[in-house]
Write a structure and sequence with these properties.
Number of domains: 1
Oligomer: single chain
Shape: elongated
Largest sheet: 2 strands, antiparallel
Number of strands: 2
Length: about 140
C-alpha cells in the first residue's frame, strides 16, 4: 500500500478534535493554493525591492508581503483587493483546519462555498475554482506592479 506523503504530512498537522479525511479533498487544494501564493509572493517581493533599491528586511506571509509591496514598494494593488480578501479566506480555512477554534469557524460561516457538517469543514469545488482565479488575479497585479 502506498502512502501519499503530502496528505500524510498535512494530516499530521490537524487538530485531533477535527475529522479531516479524504472525504474533503478540497482542503489539500486550499493548502496548495496558499503555499503557491506565499512562495511566488516571496520572489515577487524580492524582485520589486531589488528593482526599487529597497533594503528593508522582508516580511513573510501574505499580509507581510502585501504590506511590503504596497508600503515600501509603492505598488497600487487596489485593483486586486477582492482577490486579496479571498486569499485571506484561504488562510482562515487553514487556521480552522489546524486549530478548530470557534472564532475561526465564525469567520468562515458567512463565506459562500464554505460550510460545516458538525465540526467537519466542507469546501465546495466552486470555492476552490474561484480561489484559483483570485490567486492568478492577485499575482498578476503584483507582477504588473
Amino acid at each position: 500500500m502506498s502512502h501519499n506523503t503530502d496528505t500524510s504530512f498535512a494530516m499530521s498537522n490537524f487538530s485531533s478534535e477535527l475529522t479531516v479525511s479524504a472525504l474533503n479533498p478540497n482542503i489539500k487544494s486550499v493548502w496548495e493554493i496558499n503555499s503557491e501564493v506565499e512562495s511566488r509572493l516571496a520572489g515577487l517581493c524580492e524582485y520589486h525591492k531589488h528593482k526599487k533599491n529597497i533594503e528593508a528586511e522582508p516580511n513573510s506571509g501574505l499580509s507581510g508581503y502585501h504590506n511590503d509591496l504596497t508600503d515600501e514598494g509603492s505598488l497600487d494593488l487596489r485593483s486586486a483587493t477582492t482577490s486579496l480578501d479571498r486569499l485571506r479566506c484561504l488562510q482562515n480555512v487553514l487556521k480552522y483546519v489546524a486549530h478548530g477554534r470557534p472564532q475561526d469557524r465564525r469567520a468562515l460561516e458567512c463565506i459562500d462555498g464554505i460550510g460545516f457538517d458538525g465540526r467537519q469543514i466542507v469546501i465546495t469545488d466552486a470555492f476552490v475554482q474561484e480561489s484559483l482565479q483570485h490567486k492568478e488575479t492577485y499575482l498578476d497585479a503584483v507582477k504588473r506592479g
